[in-house]
Design a protein that fits this description.
With 367 residues, the chain is an alpha+beta fold. The chain is 21% helix and 39% strand. The radius of gyration is 42 Å and the shape is rod-shaped. The relative contact order is 0.06.
């Protein structure tokens, strides 16, 4: 190693020493934390001081490295006054620039509800989140988000205009899409899963399966013929459903509730016999007769010739007799059962059996 004299060493020191200037952003290491001030080592035998209140919120510790702005250089006292605020503003702008360009998430604090959305804050920079960008679902009470930290993506950012527009919904949709893809990979035909009734339509119901939505058509909801879904389920109900079919590309799932319940035709001979008199409800009026839904849900048919002059409306109750059961074709033929005629018949039969003695008793014995 070549020997160097003092002059050469001092020259080399000067060349390697950073020339500090007011307004410069420098990296420093927390050396000590006092009651009021924090001493920061800037390297090259320089130390700076910063008000403790400026870094208290960041909860920094000794030996941590962080950037500061040089506010003042006091050559006489050899003291360098630092500020965290100026450096933080620059870091914040750089973070916003990078996050906006790379579509990276940032965390904002919701300050208040204003016209059209939420006023948010990102490290001192004000931003705006429209109501439509708060959540995937409709938000009824935006006040619930005040003083909460939310992860979101940047929709628009302009330093010159200090315009920051953010969206939590965009981030939620990315997460939802990822979970949906993973969920569809786990699906199997005939698989039984839990769901919540989300919304009911005339043709069926939308079922929330957690990571995706499925649709339960009214014809797949029950073995019993129903006219609306509210006859068996309501919004908010927790139910088990079976995967009937699904399409990964279109993200569609068809569900069945009927197929995980007992088909009433499987137990028809346990429930009914030819000659049984049962109650039913008029389900549909067709040209040749009536379709009648029995208590177990099976549909029977009664010919109009059985009805005589009687008129029935939909949902009217009717008493019928089982005439024939065709298991193979799942059909039941019914006969009209006139309860009034039966009662009258029994009454007439009783009258025919009545004798004079029944009427006058032992009156003749007393003569």
């Amino acid at each position: 190693m070549e020997d160097k004299n003092m002059e050469e060493l001092m020259k080399e020191f000067d060349e390697n020493t950073i020339k500090l200037e007011e307004g410069m952003i420098v990296e420093g290491t927390i050396y000590s934390i006092g009651n009021d001030d924090v001493i920061v080592s800037l390297g090259h035998m320089y130390d700076g001081v910063v008000d403790r209140l400026e870094i208290e919120e960041e909860k920094l510790n000794v030996d941590e490295k962080i950037n500061f702005e040089i506010l003042k250089i006091d050559d006489e006292n050899g003291q360098i006054v630092l500020s965290r605020k100026g450096a933080l503003e620059i870091e914040t702008v750089e973070k916003l620039d990078k996050s906006f360009e790379n579509k990276e998430a940032i965390e904002v604090m919701v300050k208040e509800v204003i016209k059209g959305g939420l006023r948010v804050d990102f490290k001192g920079i004000r931003g705006f989140m429209p109501f439509s960008q708060i959540d995937i679902k409709y938000v009824e009470n935006a006040d619930e988000y005040i003083d909460k930290k939310l992860d979101c993506l940047i929709n628009d950012w302009n330093l010159h205009d200090k315009n920051l527009v953010v969206s939590r919904r965009a981030l939620l949709e990315i997460d939802k899409d990822k979970k949906e893809k993973e969920f569809f990979e786990t699906l199997e035909i005939d698989q039984i899963i839990d769901g919540n009734v989300y919304k009911i339509f005339k043709s069926g119901a939308l079922i929330d399966l957690g990571a995706a939505m499925g649709y339960l058509y009214i014809n797949d909801a029950s073995w019993i013929r129903i006219k609306n879904m509210e006859e068996i389920i309501n919004v908010g109900d927790k139910i088990k459903v079976q995967i009937k079919s699904f399409n990964k590309e279109e993200r569609k799932i068809s569900l069945s509730l009927r197929d995980i319940t007992v088909n009433p035709w499987d137990t028809i001979l346990d429930d009914y016999e030819v000659g049984d008199v049962v109650y039913g409800k008029i389900f549909k009026d067709i040209s040749s007769g009536l379709l009648v839904q029995l208590e177990t849900g099976v549909i029977g048919y009664i010919h109009k010739s059985e009805l005589g002059n009687k008129k029935y409306q939909l949902d009217d109750e009717i008493t019928v007799e089982i005439e024939r059961i065709d298991i193979e074709n799942e059909k039941i033929s019914l006969l009209f059962f006139d309860e009034d005629s039966v009662v009258e018949s029994y009454e007439n039969e009783e009258k025919e059996k009545t004798t004079i003695g029944d009427i006058f008793g032992d009156i003749f014995d007393k003569i």
